[in-house]
Write a structure and sequence with these properties.
eight-stranded mixed sheet; six-stranded parallel sheet; Rossmann fold; alpha/beta; about 45% helix; 18 helices
C-alpha cells in the first residue's frame, strides 16, 4: 500500500500554522503529502508549486476562471480610459442595431457574471473543480479535508474511484455554530457528508463532546499546539519598540491574530483609558480593522493603541516576545468561540507571555490549571482593565506567570501532540491494508 496523502485547504497556505504542522509531521514519517490550496493573484511572489521537503509538496490552483479575469481586465480598461469606453459604446450601439436580442442577452450575462452573487458561485465552483482535478492526478490512499469547504472535494476524490480511499475530515471550527455561517445550509451540508467520512478530527474535547451529541460519535482530538521554541536564553526579539517609536521600557499589551468580529477587540480598545500604563498593539489584519482604527481615533487613543500588519508565521514569535501580557478575549457569540482552544494562547505561552483570557472551558482549563495568566469576563472592558492593572502593579506575579508559561510549553507543544495525528493515520493505514487497497 502506498502512503500518498492528498490534503485540501481553502486558503493560500501562507499563514496556516495547523496545516503546516500536520503536513510536516506526516512527511517526517514517510507519508508523501501533496497539499492543494488556492493561489493569490495579488501576490506575485507566491508560487503555484512548492517543494517544502522531499515528501511534502504544495500545489496552488487558480483562484479566478480565465474568462472572468479577461472580463474584469476589460472592465477596468473601460473605467480608466474614456476613449476606449466611448469606442466600446459606439460598437455596442451598432451591434444592438444589428442584433438587439443577442447583444442584450450577452450584456445581461456579462453584468450577472461581474456584479451579482453568480460571480462568487462561479469563482468558488471553479476552485472546487480545479481542486478535484488535481486530487485525481496521483494515486493517493488517503484524502484529508481541512474544514467543511474542502469536504466535497475530498469526498468526490476518495469515493468516486475504482478502489475507495480513506477520507479524513479535519474540522478546525464548529461548522454548525460559527460567526458568518449562520445559514442552516452549512449544518445540512456537514450532516450529509459526516456519514460518508472514514475518520474525523476536532481541536479539543469540548468540541468532540458537542460532535457526539450532534452526530452520535466521538471524533479524534488533535490539539492546535505550536512548535516548541528555543529556550528563553536564546530567544531573539524583533525591534518592536523602535518600529512603533516607543520608549524601550514601555510595556507592550499585545493582541496578535485576525482582526475579526467576536474576538473582543473593541473591548480592548475601550479598556485602554482605564489601564494605568502600557501601549496596546494589534498585530494582524482583518475585516474590522478599519472600524477599530476609526474607534481609536474617535476615542483619541492614537498614542495608546498601535496597529501593525500581519507578519509571516515564522517571524511572529520574535514580535510576541516583546509583550508584557497577551490577550485572548473571545466573546461568546457562538459555540465555535465558546469552545475554542485557540492557537494564540499557546503562542503566547511559548514566548513566556502571560495572558489575559476569556473564561471559556478550554481556555480556562489551561490558564488556571497551569497558572499562566488571568481569566476575565471578556464582555466587560472594565474587568479586562482590572486584570491588566493587577499584572502591571504586581510585576513579581507577572514574572512568576511567565516562568509557568515556559514550564507549560514543555507539555503544550506540537512535538508532543503530533502523535495524536499520526495515530489517526496509522489506524487509516491499517484499515486500507486489511481491505487490500
Amino acid at each position: 500500500m502506498n502512503k500518498n496523502v492528498c490534503m485540501f485547504v481553502w486558503n493560500h497556505f501562507t499563514n496556516d500554522a495547523r496545516v503546516l504542522r500536520e503536513c510536516t509531521a506526516l512527511s517526517e514519517q514517510d507519508y508523501k503529502v501533496d497539499l492543494i490550496c488556492i493561489h493569490d493573484p495579488k501576490d506575485d511572489d507566491l508560487p503555484m508549486y512548492e517543494e517544502r521537503n522531499e515528501n511534502f509538496r504544495v500545489f496552488r490552483v487558480r483562484r479566478y476562471p480565465v474568462l472572468l479575469e479577461a472580463m474584469q481586465k476589460a472592465y477596468r480598461i473601460l473605467l480608466s480610459n474614456k476613449i476606449v469606453a466611448f469606442l466600446a459604446l459606439i460598437c455596442w450601439l451598432v451591434l444592438m442595431y444589428v442584433n438587439p436580442f443577442l447583444v442584450g442577452m450577452l450584456s445581461i450575462l456579462g453584468f450577472t457574471l461581474l456584479k451579482t452573487k453568480v460571480r462568487v458561485a462561479w469563482i468558488r465552483g471553479s476552485i472546487i473543480l480545479r481542486m478535484i482535478l488535481r486530487g485525481y492526478q496521483r494515486n493517493y490512499s488517503i484524502y484529508h479535508s481541512n474544514d467543511l469547504n474542502t469536504l466535497p472535494q475530498g469526498y468526490i476524490c476518495s469515493k468516486f474511484r475504482l478502489k475507495r480511499k480513506r477520507l479524513i475530515y479535519d474540522s478546525h471550527e464548529v461548522q454548525t455554530s460559527r460567526t458568518g455561517y449562520e445559514s442552516a445550509y452549512h449544518g445540512k451540508l456537514e450532516k450529509f457528508f459526516i456519514s460518508r467520512i472514514d475518520s474525523m478530527i476536532v481541536e479539543n474535547h469540548t468540541r468532540a463532546k458537542y460532535n457526539e451529541d450532534l452526530y452520535g460519535f466521538y471524533p479524534n482530538v488533535v490539539h492546535n499546539y505550536p512548535f516548541k521554541q528555543e529556550t528563553k536564553l536564546t530567544q531573539e526579539k524583533a525591534p518592536l519598540h523602535d518600529m512603533l517609536d516607543l520608549p524601550q521600557n514601555e510595556k507592550i499589551l499585545l493582541y496578535q491574530g485576525g482582526i475579526q468580529t467576536g474576538r473582543g477587540l473593541d473591548k480592548l480598545v475601550r479598556a485602554m483609558p482605564h489601564i494605568k500604563e502600557g501601549t496596546l498593539v494589534f498585530i494582524g489584519d482583518g475585516k474590522i480593522k478599519p472600524q477599530l482604527k476609526k474607534m481609536v481615533q474617535e476615542m483619541e487613543l492614537e498614542h495608546k493603541v498601535k496597529f501593525l500588519p500581519k507578519v509571516p508565521l515564522r517571524d511572529l514569535p520574535r514580535y510576541t516576545r516583546n509583550a508584557y501580557v497577551g490577550f485572548q478575549v473571545l466573546n461568546n457569540v457562538c459555540f465555535n468561540h465558546y469552545s475554542a482552544s485557540s492557537n494564540k494562547l499557546f503562542e503566547y505561552m511559548m514566548s513566556g507571555i502571560p495572558v489575559v483570557a476569556c473564561s471559556f472551558p478550554e481556555v480556562e482549563r489551561v490558564v488556571k490549571g497551569e497558572e499562566v495568566g488571568v481569566c476575565v469576563d471578556s464582555h466587560d472592558y472594565e474587568d479586562i482593565a482590572r486584570a491588566v492593572n493587577h499584572l502591571l502593579t504586581n510585576e513579581q506575579l507577572r514574572d512568576q506567570l511567565s516562568e509557568n508559561c515556559y514550564d507549560a510549553s514543555l507539555k503544550y507543544n506540537w512535538e508532543e501532540e503530533k502523535f495524536s495525528l499520526l495515530e489517526v493515520y496509522q489506524t487509516s493505514t491499517k484499515s486500507l491494508v486489511a481491505e487490500g487497497v
